[in-house]
Amino acid sequence: xxxxxxxxxxxxxxxxxxxxxxxxxxxxxxxxxxxxxxxxxxxxxxxxxxxxxxxxxxxxxxxxxxxxxxxxxxxxxxxxxxxxxxxxxxxxxxxxxxxxxxxxxxxxxxxxxxxxxxxxxxxxxxxxxxxxxxxxxxxxxxxxxxxxxxxxxxxxxxxxxxxxxxxxxxxxxxxxxxxxxxxxx
Length: 185
Known about the structure:
This protein is mostly helical. It has one domain (about 5-185). The chain is about 60% helix and about 0% strand. It is built from 8 helices and 2 strands. The chain has helices at about 15-35, 35-45, 50-55, 75-85, 100-125, 130-140, 145-155, 160-180, and strands at about 5, 185. Helix 2 packs across helix 8 (about 160-180) and helix 5 (about 100-125) crosses helix 8 (about 160-180). The protein is globular, with a radius of gyration of 17 Å. The model has no long low-confidence stretch (mean pLDDT about 90).
């Protein structure tokens, strides 16, 4: 497991204050920058000192994958990327020559941590599929690759719902990292 320190500007905050700050930052990043997947990662990254590359790698899972609205909610994908940064199986543990049970155990453990986040989505929203969430929130599905549909999405204020999803997920990610001991306070 990789450990992260809380960035200097957030040291001294209580657990609850860190969780609230994660929510706030996730919402603000999405409001100002777009890309739900990247913004949930950026919200956590702003608080915790981990590699900038993780934020960059979360760019395109947004909107159910590359704005297609066909797959898993980008917020869950981005959040899983953060959790995998801390709990995922390192490349040196992969083998193309033999089956090593300890490597499989690390994979199983990482999947278990990711399931904690997925389970929170299912508990809160009943799903983690982008189109299902859109239909639940907005009564319809938006095609994010269609400029007219994106304009309608924005004018209807629907991005506020997505901002809340990003904020909640940033909070949940921080909770999991704290509960699992990946964050040094």
